[in-house]
Specification:
Length: 140
């Protein structure tokens, strides 16, 4: 896996990331930190990556279990340390899974498997943060 990060130049704190898979995304800082608020903060990108990794797992596990899933949303709320390095200290994942006749036990199992076994991003962040999760199921 590869990634290249380029600074946008003298005015501001805009950075552009180019991934090994050929995608481009921008990151910026808050105005009080010299940024112009043109893109997500790098730590927001890290949190979003963990949410995407876990949601991907949940959907894949439920699809492999032949459940009729039509939607999955992961909402993450994080707290950070007050001093540098301001690592994440707590992260709560709330999954809203939509489908037809989804058994709560299957959704819980998918979320737990993601957390315990499959989500690399959560595993890394779990070294500094207490990670919790909850679910809700909506009928399609």
């Amino acid at each position: 896996m590869e990634c290249t990060i380029d600074w946008g130049g003298r005015d501001g704190m805009l950075f552009v990331a180019r991934t090994g898979s050929g995608h481009v995304t921008a990151m910026d800082g808050a105005p009080e930190g010299g940024g112009n608020n043109l893109a997500p903060r790098p730590m927001e990108m890290l949190l979003a990556g963990a949410g995407g990794c876990a949601a991907y797992d949940v959907v894949l596990i439920l699809k492999r279990g032949r459940h009729d899933i039509s939607g999955c949303r992961a909402e993450l709320k994080a707290e950070r340390a007050e001093t540098d390095p301001k690592v994440f200290t707590r992260i709560h994942f709330h999954f809203t899974v939509t489908g037809k006749n989804l058994p709560a036990a299957a959704v819980e199992r998918a979320v737990q498997l993601s957390h315990d076994k499959y989500c690399s991003a959560s595993a890394m962040l779990g070294r500094t943060a207490e990670i919790t999760h909850s679910i809700s199921i909506e009928e399609a």
